[in-house]
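User: Could you go from structure to sequence for me? I need the amino acid at each position, not a summary. Structure tokens:
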């Protein structure tokens, strides 16, 4: 306490610093179970005209729509119906790309949309629709991966 009163700080820490040693905290890892895998995708849309811009906006709205729950009116609006589930497949010419792992059923956790291109130069078409969209999607699998699932190609 006397050392601290004169601005010396904690005596134990000061001694550790002078001697160049630190206490071993003896921490151990405790396994608490698997985590759900997450998948992030980024899509950039550069429509060439208003028609392509409308189609890009429909894609964005579709993902936002399926990410959110439905309010169930049968219980007086107290319950939600769960959001849509997604199946993500990596495809190649003749079907599923077997060089990439499979993904189990997913929920869309987050949709971020940016309406400005890199550099922040905000331009629009004549109908005021942006000329660039960046869509960031964050998915999470709905089941845990196990060794058996990994051996099955997930």
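Assistant: Here is the amino acid at each position, in order:
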């Amino acid at each position: 306490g006397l050392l601290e009163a004169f601005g010396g700080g904690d005596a134990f820490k000061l001694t550790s610093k002078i001697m160049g040693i630190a206490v071993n905290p003896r921490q151990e890892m405790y396994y608490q179970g698997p985590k759900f895998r997450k998948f992030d995708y980024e899509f950039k849309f550069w429509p060439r005209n208003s028609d392509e811009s409308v189609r890009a906006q429909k894609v964005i709205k579709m993902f936002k729509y399926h990410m959110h729950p439905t309010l169930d009116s049968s219980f007086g609006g107290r319950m939600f119906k769960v959001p849509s589930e997604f199946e993500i497949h990596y495809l190649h010419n003749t079907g599923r790309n077997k060089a990439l792992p499979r993904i189990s059923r997913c929920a869309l956790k987050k949709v971020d949309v940016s309406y400005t291109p890199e550099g922040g130069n905000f331009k629009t078409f004549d109908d005021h629709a942006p000329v660039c969209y960046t869509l960031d999607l964050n998915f999470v699998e709905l089941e845990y991966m196990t060794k058996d699932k990994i051996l099955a190609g997930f």
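One structural detail worth keeping in mind: The mean pLDDT is 88.
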